[in-house]
UniProtKB/TrEMBL annotation:
Organism taxonomic ancestry: Eukaryota, Viridiplantae, Streptophyta, Embryophyta, Tracheophyta
Pfam families xrefs: peroxidase
Binding site for Ca(2+) 1: D12, V15, G17, D19, S21, E35
Descriptive protein name: peroxidase
GO biological process, one term: response to oxidative stress
Binding site for Ca(2+) 2: D189, T192, D197
Family per record: Belongs to the peroxidase family. Ascorbate peroxidase subfamily.
Amino acid sequence: MAAGIIRLFFHDCFVRGCDASLLPKTVPGNEGESEQDAGANAGTLRGLEVIDQAKARLEVACPKTVSCADILAFAARDSTNVVGGFSYDIPSGRRDGRISNINEVDLPSPGSDINTLKMAFMAKGMSVKDMVALSGAHSIGRAGCNFAASRLYFFNGTGTDPSLDPKYAMILKKKCPKNRISSGTTELDLVTPDRLDNQYYRTKGEIRNKCGVVN
């Protein structure tokens, strides 16, 4: 659940800032769809019920005081502490946004190359250093097999991407056989999949050894 909550926080903050605009659902009959229905979010968001439960309890204890935006920020901070063993100071006082528009969701695609990613983060006022730091959240969590399929089975329309480590490619093929491409998942980090650590960056880790689920 920690990985899902951390992902929620990033997907919220990247669009309109950390204003909980990701949380409202599309209301039938209202004009437009919410951020939850965007391709990057639809059917993949985890942890929403945790935020709802926290909000319900806080409304009983101190009505109309703590925003959903603050709850999500604190939940992401505490999730980091649970799975990473470290914490950080974070101020309160965020206001909940009143707009949630599917057309404003401009999250980077999993297939984006490095230049596209740099431009996307810079457009939000973030540096390359910020981008690299935030990418470390991929040290935990899982990815759909469909994101790896193009390099495992259909590279250049035929076989496996030769830039993949052969041993790692075999592991992925066992976790993501062709008959489970649309439904299967695999760990983003095979070494410490449930720990938020620096394995994502280490010289002998996934990226430099070509052993991480990145496109």
